[in-house]
What does this fold into?
Amino acid sequence: MHQNPCMTTTATPLDVTTRASLREHNSFGLPAVARTLVRLKTEADVRRVVDHPEYGVAPKFVLGGGSNVVLTRDLDSVVLKVEILGRRLVREDADAWIVEAGAGEPWHNFVAWTLDQGWPGLENLALIPGSVGAAPVQNIGAYGVELKDRFEALDAVDLVTGRSVTLDAAACHFGYRDSVFKHTGFGGLAGKSVITRVRFRLPKPWQPVRGYLDIERKMAETGNSAPDARTVFDWICAIRRAKLPDPAVIGNAGSFFKNPVVTEEQCRDIIGRDPEIVHYPLPDGTVKLAAGWLIDACGWKGKTVGRAGVYDKQALVLVNRGGASGAEVVTLARAIQESVYGRFGIRLEPEPIIV
Ligand code: EPU
It folds into this structure.
């Protein structure tokens, strides 16, 4: 590995590493080598990549925080690691705080900082691994709040034209763990733009988002039925630490599969055979099933295949037991998909991007 500071039209060199290990740059800790890794510190760096005679025309892969990706091979594309920092209050209205962060800011630190500043609203999303820029890509969500509920707009740079664009929520096409940035087809922006900054709208007056079983349980345990934002933050951190592995200790990418949505009829059919199934009726008449429960019911919790495994406290989380390859993780994921399909007739869809 060697540093190759590459001079372009301006005096600031691009931070380029050739033959760069990506192990430290993906939360699963999977081995993969990028032929070219460019670390982007500013928006201008993105434009330097676009204007670069070689990188400008090469296929690109935007790595963000590396917390939602399974790397199964070395990458020949130019890997762009977004490290744009900075956070600020954009404005305060009568009904909201508008707060902005650079895409490279670690998500959890940003959430904690907003609370320290007295701007609550992101506390339910505490401790989600990854960066601010990766958060809109998969519309992160937890404990009754999704990023789209607190989203104002984001800035991105088009990787073909080098132009800066601002996208509002409608342009991002947010769905359940989904956005325009996960799609490569027509209109999709995966690999076509780099998110540089994200702005959040934190509504006033602040109200806790409750209703989620784990939070209700904390209220009952503590006897505190009117928690402030800091208390909710602390509860969420405790809940997550109790059942989700810390990627700094055990490689993982959070929930490995999306919770599948089925028709009411399909759900009734499954309940007929498995009355215990955890399910949540949705407003449109469909029903969301707990994928963790389905996987658990198939006996996968705590199992190991090769050096990949199923976390012993949450069957929806696949983990690197030490030295696993991306292929091992994918093999395990396929085996889980097959057994869930065999028993329930439901196809589980991976949440991370498999490369
Ligand atoms: N369950 C089991 N066995 C398991 C795991 C879960 O029976 O091994 C049951 C639980 O008892 C519970 C239900 O399944 O009744 C749901 O489990 P949990 O509350 O842990 O939430 P989840 O549906 O598994 C989702 C998100 C998480 C988010 C939590 C909390 C998805 C794919 N996952 O998990 O998001 O933190 O809700 O809101 O939507 C992520 O996306 O990476 C992530 C961690």
